[in-house]
Amino acid sequence: MEEENLPRHIGFIMDGNGRWAKKRAMPRNFGHKQGAAVFKKTVNWCRELGVRAATFYAFSTENWKRPADEVKGIMNLLRKYIKDIRAMAKEDVRFIFIGDLTKLDEDIQVELTDIMETTKQNTGFITGVALNYGGRAEIANAARLLAEKCVSGELEPGDITEEAFERELYTSKFPPLDLVIRPSGEQRLSNFLIWQAAYAEFVFMDVLWPDFKKKDLESAIEEYAHRSRRFGGV
C-alpha cells in the first residue's frame, strides 16, 4: 500500500479479553494474558506494514472499579511483560506510557519511567500504552498545565491555541491519530483519545481482542485507505 494511504498513528481499544475467557470457562485474567500476547504481535505487524505509531488502551481510569483480584492480576501481568517491553525497545521502538502513572504501584512507576527515558532516542516506531488513562482527565490535565503557565506569566490567555493545548497532551510526541480500531463488537470510544480522535477514522470489528490477527489489522487499514478524509472541506 502506498505510504499516503497508510494511517500514521493507530489507536487500539483492546476489548473483549474477559468475554474471550468466559467463552472458554476460564478466569478473566486468562483473557488478559492472551490479550497481552496479541499486543506484542500487533506492534510488530504495524511496523511491518509501515505504520509509524500505535497507542494501546490497556487500563482506563474507570477500570479500578473492577474486582480487586482482576486489577491485581492485570498489574502483575504488566510486571511480567515489562521484560518483553524492554526487549522490544532494543528494536528501535520508543515507548511512551500515557495516563496518570502516579496511581500505579511504585515499582511499576520506576520501571515505566526508566523505559521511557532509555527509549526516548529511538526513532523506528512509537508505542503508546495507556495506563490509568482517561481522555477527559487528559484534557483537564492539559488545561491545568496551561492555567499554571498563565498564572506564572509564561503565557497569556490569548496565547492558548489548539496547537498550544496539544503540546500539553500526553501524545505530544506522536504523529496525528488517523485510525481507531476497536474489536469486540462495541462501537464507542470509551474515553480513549477523545481530543486526538476528532478527525480519526473508526473501524469497529466483531472479533474479540485475543483473537485479533494480522489479517484483521490489514482489513482495517484497507478500509481506512478507501475512506474520503476531507477534514471539513469538500
Can you give a write-up of this model?
The chain has one domain: Decaprenyl diphosphate synthase-like (Undecaprenyl pyrophosphate synthetase), CATH 3.40.1180. It is an alpha/beta fold and 234 residues long. It has seven helices and six strands; from the N terminus they run E-H-H-E-H-E-H-E-H-H-E-E-H. 43% of the residues lie in helices and 15% in strands. It has a six-stranded parallel beta sheet, sandwiched between helices. The longest helix has 22 residues.
Using brief descriptors, characterize the structure shown:
234 residues; Undecaprenyl pyrophosphate synthetase; 6 strands
Tell the overall outline: globular
Spans with pLDDT under 50 lasting ≥5 residues?
Answer: none
Q: Give the oligomer, counting copies of the same chain as homo and different chains as hetero.
A: single chain
By DSSP, the count of extended strands is: 6
Give the terminus-to-terminus CA distance: 25 Å
CATH class: Alpha Beta
- The radius of gyration is 18 Å
- State the domain count: 1
Précis, in short:
The chain is an alpha/beta fold and 234 residues long.
What's the helix and strand layout?
Layout: E1 9-13, H1 17-23, H2 28-49, E2 53-60, H3 68-89, E3 93-98, H4 106-119, E4 125-133, H5 135-152, H6 162-166, E5 179-182, E6 201-204, H7 214-225
Parallel strand pairs: 1-2, 1-5, 2-4, 3-4, 5-6
